[in-house]
Amino acid sequence: MAPRFGSECLTLALPIHRVRESLWGHDMVDPADKDRLEALQKRIDELKGADAPVSKMEDHHSQAHLAWRMVIELVSGIVIGFGIGYGLDTVLGTMPIFLVLFVLLGFAAGVRVMMRSVKELQDEGAADAGSDKGN
């Protein structure tokens, strides 16, 4: 197998009978080629830097993702509370009582879910910090 177009671009050419065998249900890769493919995949992973540390930009985006998650959790609690309260008030004919009650309960539920998310992040950060100190 010779490199084409320079050393950066390697092509893996399989004989046509192997392609035909793969179409008829036979295994496309023989055991001899499997070791070469694994070595090639390992080399590609090394060159890509698969174990590279997370950049600050990716960390920034993950923090923004978590902030939006918390906002959505809070708003969804309020909206669900509004829907339940409005539905009960419409059915029972007691317009503002259940609406106000369930909006407040939805707000409390949203805050509770947000606090649980923050606790998970703190626990995850403490576990990461503990693993970093151990190295």
Describe this structure in words.
This protein has helices at 16-23, 31-48, 56-92, 95-134. The protein is mostly helical and 135 residues long. The protein folds into two domains: 16-48, no CATH class; 56-134. Helix 3 (56-92) packs antiparallel against helix 4. The chain is elongated and about 75 Å long.
Summarize the structure.
The chain is mainly α and 135 residues long.
Beta strand %: under 5%
Oligomerization state: single chain
Shape: elongated
> Can you count the helices?
4
Number of strands: 0
SSE class: mainly alpha
Q: Helix content range of the residues, please?
A: over 70%
**Total domain units:** 2
The average pLDDT is 78
Q: What's the SSE pattern? A: HHHH
Distance between the termini: 42 Å
The major sheet is characterized as: none
Poorly predicted tracts of residues? 6-11
The Rg value, from CA coordinates, equals 28 Å
